[in-house]
Description:
Strand order of the largest sheet: 6-7-8-3-9-10
Mean pLDDT: 82
Number of strands: 10
Largest sheet: 6 strands, mixed
CATH topology of the largest domain: Rossmann fold
Distance between the termini: 87 Å
Number of helices: 12
Strand content: 5-15%
Helix content: 40-55%
CATH class of the largest domain: Alpha Beta
Number of domains: 3
CATH architecture of the largest domain: 3-Layer(aba) Sandwich
Amino acid sequence: MIKDSSRGLESFTVEGLTINQIQEWVPDIEIIMKDLGIPITNKDSSLKYLCDEAGYELSQVLQAIFSREAQKKEIEMQKEAINFSNIDRIRIETGFDKDGNREPVESIELRSGEIVAIVGPTGSGKSQLLFDIESLAVGDTVSKRKVYLNDNLWEVSDDSYNMIRPIAHISQTMNFILDLSVYDFLNLHIESRLGISNNESLIDDVIKTACKLCGEPFTGEMQLVSLSGGQSRALMISDAVLISKSPIVLIDEIENAGINKDVAINFLTGKGEIALLATHDPVIALKADKRIVLKNGAISKVIERQKEESDILEMLLENERIVEDLRKKMRLGETIAL
């Protein structure tokens, strides 16, 4: 008899049980054995026989089973503690700049549906702020900031955090290395995230949305590795919102990735995301509800969108429309003339 009462696990007998029998109450037994490096030559063999054959103590496998079951329970507890759909705000308690001085802004609160631009010169700390938010910092990063979800700090183990994270971060440069079609990739993600497979309507919705975001149509039959940078990032934005349903989306320099900025901002706003966009683009900065200004690693100020900036924004948008029209003509090989 084996028992681990400290983790609340039931007693069970393993002596003589085969892998097939054990799998009924430990579905992950094959994964556990593989992680330990114990080959399963025959699933009708007993666990003890396979351990002896590989030179392992039976207790090592049992401890691995206990650890994995305890980890599952922790994950379930965290899922119950914070429901992603209930996350409607984040609060950032600031820390220190690169010289060790307190940040001028003490606290920032961001709410669902807000588009927030993160601005500042190169090296000002934009990437560090994104990292702090993505990490759900608890004073454990260089800046010493703390990030609260609905007034709660997110303190979980690394393993469970990776599995149930409520934040999607789309970086500047990304390329797929998986040898899968777009359809198979999305289906795999839906299976692991939502527990269903072959959800044709959801997969179709994700692909259609991604095509709108990047303006470069692609299909589910295309291989991930064949997607352009813009298509890849568009797919990840669409995936993060429609499949992962991440309430917080971080995007680093969306203007440099072949993404239609207007479509992306409207999409994120319409889905009620808290979207933070690190940017050097004045159009994105002026369209945002707030601008977080970084200087020397510190949040120096937070600027609410001003009414008088609307005229400047409209002028910039008109210029962008002209440039976009020229870009399309050049791509089609047309002659450009006044």
